[in-house]
Amino acid sequence: MTSITGQSADPPGSGQGRVGATAASTGRFGDLVFSGAARAAGIIVVVLVALIGVFLLSQALPSLMKNEANFLTSTQWSVSGESPRFGIAGLLWVTVSSSIVAMSIAVPLGVAVALFITQYAPTWLARPAAAMVDLLAAVPSIVYGIWGAYIAGPYFLPIQNGLGDVLGWFPLFSPTNISGASTILFVGVVLAIMVLPIVTALTREVFEQTPTTHKEGALALGATKWEMIRTAVLPFGKPGIISASMLGLGRALGETVAVMIIVSALPEGAGRSWSLLNGGETFASKIANNAGEFDTPQKTGAYIAAGLVLFILTFIVNAIARIAIERRRAFTE
Predict the structure, then answer these.
(1) In terms of Cα–Cα distance, which of 246, 215, 243, 249 is closest to 118?
(2) How many Å apart are CA 329 and CA 333, to the nearest integer?
């Protein structure tokens, strides 16, 4: 139909219907593109991880087949000649023990710093304090290694000697012939400082998201400041604390340069020791220290086998963290 003015008169609402349909189709197309891109990104990540695992396994198997020692329990590392004998027991102990020491220090300290910044510090102090802690994450690993070996080491030496004198009867603190602050215990302390900004930043973000109604409700019921934190803030932030701890543990397990600079490598044939006052090498530092030996497939495969164990260890840590977080989420819901 045509109106008196010569313009077409469409039925009421027909224009709005077309606009709405166009918007809906555009939004539908955008949703499809976004969901497809997200799904593709997830698939690519999974495929990359699987390919890395397959590559490591394929390169390590020939050397493992020729290995004449128990790969999981032996502390020997002789990858040359016709009869290679190598195992990862010593590397596994140093890697895990130094990481546990680091997390034992970094997690409680990081959570305490996050609680102070979010619950106790005034605004004029909270922001600069958070920025200063976050700046620790920007310090390169080699700086931590040099700082630990040449500056902090001499100050830590009396503490280390005191632990050996007082707790030397305990296997974890039995004295050794390693001189200076170049032990597993000291590198764990340095790793704790490196991991601290990760734990603090993530837990701080989670604590800041605690519902105000939860905190005000606890205070209204007569709870003190600490009781409010214990009953409202910490339970809400527990999944975040677990995630931050596992992410920091992954950083500690794979740290290379700082460990290379600080920890003293044990001589070949040294017996196994459970002492944290001993030296040694982690998986990462062992591979980096001996990169020049990758001149034959047999030697290369032996070190790749060690890298495969580190890859599996990191994967297990992340899987455990994911399971713990999901269980906690199911419990809270």
Answers:
(1) 215
(2) 6
pLDDT in tens, 265-316: 766 655 567 888 888 888 988 888 888 778 888 888 999 999 999 999 988 8
Q: Which residues, 6+ apart, have CB-to-CB distance to 265 below 8 Å?
A: 279, 280, 281, 289
Q: Please tell me whether residue 263 adopts helix, strand or coil conformation.
A: coil
- 63-108 pLDDT, tens per residue? 899 888 888 888 888 888 788 888 898 899 999 999 999 999 999 9
Task: Report the distance separating Cα 99 and Cα 44, nearest Å.
Answer: 30
- Cα–Cα–Cα angle for 158, 164, 166, nearest 5°? 100
Residues sharing a CB contact under 8 Å with residue 175, sequence separation 6 or more, in sequence order: 164, 165, 168, 275, 277
Contact criterion met (CB below 8 Å) for 195 and 106: yes
Rounded to whole angstroms, the Cα distance separating 183 from 22 reads 68
